[in-house]
Amino acid sequence: MKRILVSALSALMILSTFTNVTYANGNEVDIVPEKNEKLSVVKEGENNLDNLNLTGEKLSSLVLPIVQSYEVAENSQNWTMDETTRFVIPNTEEYLNNSRLKEIVELVSAEFLAKQIPTAKEINKVYALDSQITSKDIVITLDKENQITEKSSSDEAYKIEINESGVKIIAASENSAMYALRTIQHLMITNNNKLVYGTIVDYPNVAERRVHVDMARKYISKDWIIQHIRQLSYFKMNTIQLHFSENLGFRIESDFDPAIVSQDGYLTKEEVREILAEAKKYGIKVIPSLDTPGHVEHILKVHPEFGQVDKNGNKSKVALDVTNPDAITYIKGLYKEYMDLFEGCTDFHIGGDEYMEFDRPPFTTEYKEVLDNYAKENLGAEYTWKDTMANYINDIAAFVYEGGFKPRIWNDGIYYGENDNTENKQQIKMHDYIGIDFWSQMGWNPSIARLNTFIEKGHKDIYNVNASYFYYVLRPSKPDDGREQHSFDYLDQDVRIYNDWTPGQFQSNTIDDNSEVIKGTSLAIWCDKPDLVTEDVITEDISKELRSLASKAWNTSSNKIADINEFKENYKKLGNVAAFEKGTSLPEVQPVKELVELNYDELNKLIEKAEGLKAEDYTEESFGNLNKVLEEAKSLIGTVDSQEEINSMVNKLNDAINNLEGKGNGNGNSSGNVPNSSEKPGTSNKPGKGDSNNSGVLPQTGIESGPWGIIAIASIILGALLIYRRGNKTIV
Q1: 462-482 pLDDT, tens per residue?
Q2: What's the pLDDT band for 458 if we cut at 50, 70, 90?
Q3: Pick from 478, 541, 527: which is nearest to 262 by CA?
Q4: How far, in Å, CA of 14 to CA of 6, rounded?
Q5: How far apart are the first and last CA of the chain?
């Protein structure tokens, strides 16, 4: 008897094993990957072979500009960005009301999508509570009260913390949050969608990083300007200067004086507003540039009456009459028009340079006497022509300052002859709010004021526009040293900028790189021969120098972290900003949405219920429809933004279940074969005797209960055996 029972139990256990496999194939358990599914052999946080030897400096150099510091954690593991990664803004009233941060997150999200980082799927963007944040998220926070690092008080500074909890950005401002996201974007491109655990601390060494565009001599299109606004932002440069009035053209629509506008190409005011809107979105400051009293030849062709009068009563064709109140009133009218157009901008460049060559005729022979006499008559006996010039510049500077702009000028129009004892020095004190673009020492004229003169006179905002490094010119003639006619002043200028230039190196003047007076630096495009090349050639010509300046201005030590060849290799990988091509746009993306608590309970129960049903019990068409809806329901989990979407799917899945047709049943739904909503998955309403609606369905055997049913039967038999043994001690 004992042998019989043991054999029976063994058979039952074997049957249980086969039943378990059958049960798994009935959709309750899925342990076999799909045919094309790849199983990762690298777990989250483990090193990839290509990341094992990356130092902090090497990781820093994978970004452009090169970041100041990337301190790698001792357990240098990887955080990997994938389709589950979200951009998360904290769900607080302060952040919910911050429209600028929202705009930045949506902008960068669109760039990631355009570059398919990490995949072609759009990144979700949410406002979330701490409890809703996962280790796959990139969390963007602001700290405007405390310095991000003791090394810099810049509002462009940021910190990125990468660890097992995820990625967290702490930014000093909204724009610095954008820079942090750009750093992550660059690392995703250059480091296979991975961030090595550690802390990035980054900030600029130079506050303003600019490109000046001579769009006056040569018509430059709106699309070109927008293209470069985006590109500047991609490399963390923050300013573009639009020089729209010159000797050879006036390139913005004017209501004040339409006659001066160049008819061979100009920007409408609406186009300028589009440019300003794009610049604001990308965190780029726009500086309008209307240069007077020199560089006005084009205006004087229309208004010769405003040319500078000489001692014989003749009018200059190239210089504005700074002694004529009518000419000054006219010029202020122009400034007012463009101050209105560029409302919201913070600076206005008023020129002040190259009025005439002060050391030679015709200035010395025809005009100097007139300006000297004006100074003595209107300013005082000890005043000279230098003060007449300074007075005009001060007057225009005060006019734009009162209009809400900080004025800027080039360096060569004031403090002339400070070391010259043959005539009086300039007596007029310049407004201390005037910024100085120091571009040239003009070595051929020793009377041009040196940089220290401006510092000694109290100018606190000086910008390094060193022509020997940063001037790109469409030249009247081709240089004989191998350069193109459209070129910088030296061959391989990008290498010179990257290896040699530092912020304190002005032309023929050097001060400490960390001097507080250095407020910025700028590359300058000048179109002296406007038809020489197209605007797209200019784009290509400046591309390498732009990247070198972007990195050196942000991180002066760039060349000590990566040599020029490594730098070039990396920026080739980074390419251009998303939507760089003229006239293109970023893809539309969903807005940042508030993450609400969603209830999936009912949907999960229906999914579980549907998974417990068996294909062999239903018609192929009805069960196929159920499977289609089931997959749709499963893909919905964790991806929706509203309870309405979940409820709609509940109804859809419920309908699919109710519309199942049993095999052999031509009368529609086989109600006795589909569990109702109160039943647990895997159970069934068993048909009663004579139930014609189930005539085509085989009776269930109990095996559908799975392995636990078999185990229960085995337990009953074993229990019976024990009872029998107790009752019959003689059984061996």
Answers
A1: 999 999 999 999 999 999 999
A2: very high
A3: 527
A4: 12
A5: 9
